[in-house]
Specification:
The structure holds two protein chains of two kinds. Chain A has 14 helices and no strands. Chain A is mostly helical. Chain A has a single domain, classed as ABC transporter involved in vitamin B12 uptake, BtuC (Orthogonal Bundle), CATH 1.10.3470.10. By secondary structure, chain B is mostly helical. The chains are: A mainly alpha, B mainly alpha.
Chain lengths: 334, 333
Amino acid sequence: MKRRPTWKNATIVSSLAVAALILAVFCLSLGSVSIPIRDVVLSLVGMNGEGSDLIITQFRLPRIVAALLIGAALAVSGSLLQGVIRNPLASPDLLGVTGGASVAVVAFMTAFTSYSIHYVPIIAIAGAFAAASVNYSFAWKKGVTPSRLVLIGIGISTAMSALTMFLLLSGPAYLAAQVLNWMTGSLYGTNWSYIKAIWPWIVALIPLSLLYAKELDIQALGEETAIGLGSRLQMSRMVAMLLSVALAGVAVGIAGTISFIGLLAPHMARKLVGNRYGIVIPTAALIGAIVLLLADLAGRMLFLPLDIPAGVFTAGVGAPFFLYLLFRRKRPGA
Amino acid sequence: MQSRRRKWKWIGLAVGCAILLLGMLASVLFGLQQFGLRDIWLAYTQFDGSNEHLIVTTTRVPRALIAAAVGASLAVAGAIMQVLTKNPIASPSLLGINSGAVLFIVIGLALTGSSLPMSSMIWIALGGAAITSLFVYTLSMQGGGGFEPIKLTLAGAAVAAFASSVTSGIMLIHKHSLETALLWMIGSVSGRELGHLLFVLPYLCVGWLLAMLIAGSLNVLALGDDNAKSLGQRLTLIRAASALAVVLLAGSSVAAAGPIAFVGLIVPHLCRYAVGSDHRWLLPYSALTGAILLVAADLAARFVLMPKEVPVGVATALIGVPFLIFVARRRKS
C-alpha cells in the first residue's frame, strides 16, 4: 500500500475546511431575503446595526451551524461504523439508530396527542440508543462479529421500519403527515436552544473518534491480525459503535433521518485521501458538513417560498460528486 | 453420505413445494371473507358473476399467484446479487432497480398529469428498472481496473440514492401525481391484476432459466476472481449474465408489485443456512422459500389490523426478522 504524501492530504483537508466556511457565509446571505455579504460579515463580528442582523443571527446562523454540525456528525458516525463492520454498505441506519428513533417518535406522538415538540429530540435519541442496544445484544455471543452485527442490524432496522409503518397505519391520519415530514430530515425551525444542547456532544465526540482511528486501521487488517497486534477487539468495537450511535443519535434527534451522508461521505473521503482513518474521519466530517449545507441551501432556495426538507436533496447534491470521485481517472502518482 | 444428503435435499424441495401450494390455497380461502374449496371450484366451473365468485377470480387467485412469483424472483435475484457484489447485505435493489422504476413512474405521472393506465405503468417501471441498472452496471466497468464488486456496490448505492432524491423532488413539485405514485410505491401484491403478472411472466421465465443455467458458474465466481479465472471461467460473460438475470427477475417483480424489500436480502441467508452455499441447490431453495415467505406475509397482512390491511412489507418483516436473527446467531462465522 502506497502512502500518500502527508502534505497533500493536509492541503485537501484545509481546502475543504475553507470551502465549508466560505459556503457557510454564502448560505447566510442567500434566502428569501438576500443580504449583502458585507452585512453578513459585519453581523458575524457583531457590528451590524441594521435590521438584517436579526435574520442572520437568529434565523439563518443557527440553521447553518446545525447543518455543519449534523453533517459532520453523520459522516463521522458512518466512518466509524464502516470501520467496525468492514462493509462498504454499512451506515448508521444499519445499527437501527434511524429506525429506533422513528419508532420512538411515532409512538410518542400517538400516545401523547398533546405533546410538546420540544420533547421530540430527546425521545428520538432515546429510541436510537434503545434500538442500537437491542441490536448489539442480539449480536452478542461471546463477543460480536461484523457479520452477525450486519445481518442482525438489517433485521432490526427492517423490524423498526415495519413497526413505524404499523403505528402510522393504526394511528390517526394527520399523524402520518407530521411523522413523514420529520422522517425526511429537515433543519427547518432550528434555533439556538437546539444548538446549545447538541454542540458539546458533537464537538467532544468527533475528536474522541479520532483517538480510535488507529484502532480501526488495525481492525481493517482482519480479525486475526488485529488480535495478534494486541488489539482489544471487543472493547474497541463496542466503544467505536457507542461513539457512532451517539453521533448519529444526536443528529437524528435534531434533524430527523437524513440519508446518504452517513453511507457515502466516508467513501468520498476515502477516494480523496486514502484509507487511513486518522485522515478519513476529519475529511468525511467536512464533506458531510458541506453536503448538508448545500442540501439545506437547495431546500431553502429552489422552491421559494416553500422550505423543502434538506433530506430530499442530500443525495441529489452528493451523488453526482461521489460518482465523479469514484470514476475519475487515476492520475499517475495519485 | 453424499447421496443421502442429496436425497434429503430433494425431499426438502418436495416438502417446500407442498407448503407453498398449501399456503397459496390458504391465501385464496382466508381473509375478510372466508371461502370453502367448493366456492373456488364453482367460481371457475360455473361462474355466476356473484360477488363471491368475483372476489375469488379477480382478487384472491391473482394475489396468491403474484405473491408466489414475485417472492421467488426476488429471492433468486438477491442470491445472485450477493455473489456478484460479494456482499452479504446486497439486495436486488442495489442495482438501482427499485429506485429507477419508481423514478420513471413518477416522471411518467408528472408528464401525463397522473392519468396513466396500469398497463403502461408496468412498461415504464420495467423500462426504468432496466435503464437504471444498465447505467449502474456500465458505471461499474469504468475507471481503472475494469469491473470490481466494490465499484458496482458503491455506484449502485449512489445512483439509487440520487434517483430517490430526484423522485422526491418531482413529487414535491407535482403534488397531484403524489397520490397515485405513493399508492404504487408501497410494494403490494394486492390490487394488482392477473394481467400484470401475465405481462411480465415471459421475462420472469427467461430470468429463472438464466439463473439456473449460471448456478454452477456462480459457485466459481464466489471463490474469488483469481480462482475463477484460473478455473477457466469467462468472468465478464458470467457477470453480465448474472446482472441480466437480476434485472429480469427484480425488474419484473417491481413492475408487477412495486418495490418489495427484505425478501431478496434475507431469503438467501436463510437458505444458505439450510442447504449450504452450492448455488445449484441454493437458487431453487431460495425461489421456494421466497415464494412461501411472500405468500405467508400476504396472508398475515390481512389479519394483523383487520379489517385494514397492512402493507405486505410489514408482514414480511414480522415473519422474516425472527428467522434472520436466529440464523445470524447460529451461523459459524
